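Troubleshooting log. The previous structure file for this entry was overwritten by mistake, so regenerating from the original sequence record. Sequence copied from the archived sheet and checked twice against the printout by T.R.
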Amino acid sequence: MALYAIGDLHLSFGAYKPMDIFDPVWKDHPSKIEKYWRKKVRPKDTVVVTGDHSWGNRLIDCAPDLDFIASLPGRKILLRGNHDKFWDAKKTPRLNEQFAGRLFFLQNNFASYEDYALVGTKGYCYEGKDTIEHFEKIRDRELGRLRTSFEAASSAGYRRFLMFLHYPPTSIGEEESGFTRMAEEYGAEQVIYSHCHGEERYRDSFLGTVNGIEYRLVSADYLRFRPERIL
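Regenerated output below.
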């Protein structure tokens, strides 16, 4: 059984929004996602999808997109992204009840993979789009949710962790952050994230091994729509 990750599927079966207006690489991207997913992922494998699943604003609008993800091979674990308007923290238990056996929603909880706990939250980084005060408020909220995830897994007896975020763990130019420090505090072996698009953002991404932790970018366009094997 293998573990894969991919993020930013940006599906819009129920809320039409073509992605190739941003970059030609996105042309017919759902077909590419399905092609490579089915080629690589087996039914007993696990795939963590690191946010921005759908352009739909309401759950009813997202239903075709979530159904598409659920139809693909493997166990699917979904993280919340900044465009996932259908999902807030209070709805996570309800979503897990509604999609039981098809999708698992990772927020304020954890998932298991062999002897690892998969922990995560949306995260947040400063991109110059809001005030510092607003950035700090959202960042601190997300750090609290990440700690809740780590603590739930620790209380269940897990000592090996893989950490997932939607946003990068640091703002551009930062060499550390509250998210990297928490990864080090709990001994996460890898930090996997997405959100970054385009060559410039790929170059700015926080990648490689830092203080013993491997940082990996899994945005769908960065991976050319091929799920990345994590373990």
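The domain at 3-229 is CATH 3.60.21.10 (Purple Acid Phosphatase; chain A, domain 2). Archived copy saved in two places this time.
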